[in-house]
Amino acid sequence: MTTSTGTDAGLVAAEDVLLFVNAAITATGQREFRSTAYQQQLSLEFLHEYVRVNYRRVYAAALALDINDHNAVLIVRGLLEHAADAGAEEKRTEGRLIAARLARLPPQRVYRLFRALRAARVNNRRTRAIMRDWLAARPDPAHDAVKYRSGLKTAARHVHLRFGGTGEPGGTGDETGDFLFRPGHRTSYRHGLLDAWRRAHYEQGAVEELPFTVAEGFAARRGMKREVFLERMAPRMTRLERLRTLGQRASGDDARPPADVDLTVMPLTRLALYVLSLGFEARSARRAELTGALRTAARRAAGPHAGGWGRVAAVLDDSYSSSGSGEKRRRPLAVALACHFLLEALAAPGAYTPLWTSGRTDPLLVRPWGPTPLGIRVLDALDLAPDRLVIVSDGWDNAPPGLAGEVLRVWRTRLAPDRRTAVVHVNPVYDADGFDVRRLAPSVPTAGIRDAEDLPALVEIAGFAEGRTGAAALYAYLDRQVARFVSDDGAGATS
Predict the structure, then answer these.
(1) pLDDT at residue 138 in the model
(2) What are phi and psi of 361, to 5 degrees?
(3) Per-position DSSP letters for 249-285, written without gaps between them
(4) Which residue, among 29, 110, 136, has the nearest Cα to 432 in the 3D structure?
(5) Closest CA to 425 of 457, 459, 402
(6) I want to staple 209 with a disulfide (CB 3.0 to 4.6 A). Which of 28, 128, 157, 196 is the partner?
(7) DSSP tag of 401
(8) What span, in angstroms and rounded, lies between the C-alpha atoms of 494 and 423?
(9) Cα distances (angstroms) measured from residue 32 to each of 43, 324, 327, 338, 424
(10) Beta strands in 281-362 (DSSP E)
């Protein structure tokens, strides 16, 4: 009896962990097709507190998984705000994980996190040490002083940062300190960016020497034409900035991208979002270019798994709900499109069959439309007897409702109990009411997904949801991920 109870407790814990991982991968606190931003935020807040209080070690270990940046920041903040709940050894492990994760986060998110910690009066020794270490590792403090001025200023005050070892922040011996805390004290700066910022207030040519996001503000105040400004700033833009402004720099829906935009090096899901932002005529006219870029990105994402999945069938959701929301426009459909090309690369040559819920056969021209007949498409896929069946959908099976779950239940329990076909459901949408991604059937493992590139890793995580490996195997997997994550980063412990 004791053994059974212990086993049941372990399964419950494993289910809680997987539930949280799914949420941390998919949920961003933004409005979704069927839930408001407030519902999303409230659901996430409860889930984070529940897991942090009951499974703190797992809560910290989630930083080593492919969770999104929004939840990574929430975890770091939760660990630092409630440091008293952890022991000395836990704090050392958490410090390494936090340092490694912060090194991977976009700087603007880290600075916003530091600002939130200051507002919450989180000022313990460990927090200050983590902030100081991250700031010390920044490659160019002067660049941050220009691009993230308020963030760096707030962080420096919070940790009593000494610029250049010359005294208090703003000391006369350091240009960055003077720039932040004593503006106007110097008539010129040796550092090019600092001096460009000073000159940009009265010299239009200096605007083009600044980082793009900073230059945008100066250009708007000076009334510079947007098209001319973007053209001049192109050499200083990051790859993401070039993509974000592509529609403004190109003339017309069917215009070619500028020469400085190389679609083949873009991440797969981001490339799929770009493709879906084009009109049907533009997609058709550029079919060879766009398809080639998507396949190149997919092969890069598949890596060593390419061609190793055998015969693969995919049920891909392009129903109306895949249009997403105003904040996540066409995101679910982009994930499905990216997964289509990735699964094509993962399958054996010529052994991949895509089945879109709309019945379309041209992936480049998909659009969010119609109901979600998942059950019918799942039946079609199972008739092919593939080695793997991957379902990419938000799980709202409604034509007819519940058919997909019933088909999978009967097929798994009566027709194919030997599990010769591995079935997995990946869901790009967080269900705020259920504190998880919506599932199709208890017998089919479900994993949350944000970027299609994470599909191979998510299939491994989803396998734990079947309950065949046990909680111990899940915790061992998390420990391996933590060790790899910290080792790859090379970050030292911060306790």
Answers:
(1) 92
(2) -120, 0
(3) HSSSTTPPPPTT--GGGS-HHHHHHHHHHS-HHHHHH
(4) 29
(5) 459
(6) 196
(7) B
(8) 42
(9) 13, 6, 8, 20, 23
(10) 312-316, 352-356
Q: Which two tokens stand for residue 165?
A: 């070892």
How is residue 409 written in tokens? 């239940």
Provide the pLDDT for residue 489. Answer: 64
DSSP 2: H
CA angle (163 as vertex; 157, 167 as ends), nearest 5: 85
CB under 8 Å to 96, separation ≥6 — which residues? Answer: 486, 491, 492, 493, 494
Quick one: angle between helices 287-302 and 268-277, nearest 10? 160
Are 194 and 176 in contact, with CB atoms under 8 Å apart?
A: yes
pLDDT of residue 288: 95
Cα–Cα distance between 195 and 209 in angstroms, integer? 10
Which whole number is the average pLDDT over 310-314?
Answer: 96
Q: Which amino acid is at 4?
A: S
Which tokens go with 258? 């500028």
Structure token pair of residue 92: 């050392």
Q: Do β-strands 446-448 and 422-427 pair in parallel, antiparallel, or remain unpaired?
A: parallel
Residue 12 has pLDDT above 90, yes or no: no
**Token digits for 429?**
């949408």
If we measure between CA atoms, which residue out of 104, 67, 62 comes closest to residue 79? Answer: 62
- The residues pairing with 329 across neighbouring beta strands, listed in sequence order, are 324
Name the amino acid, one letter, at 471.
A
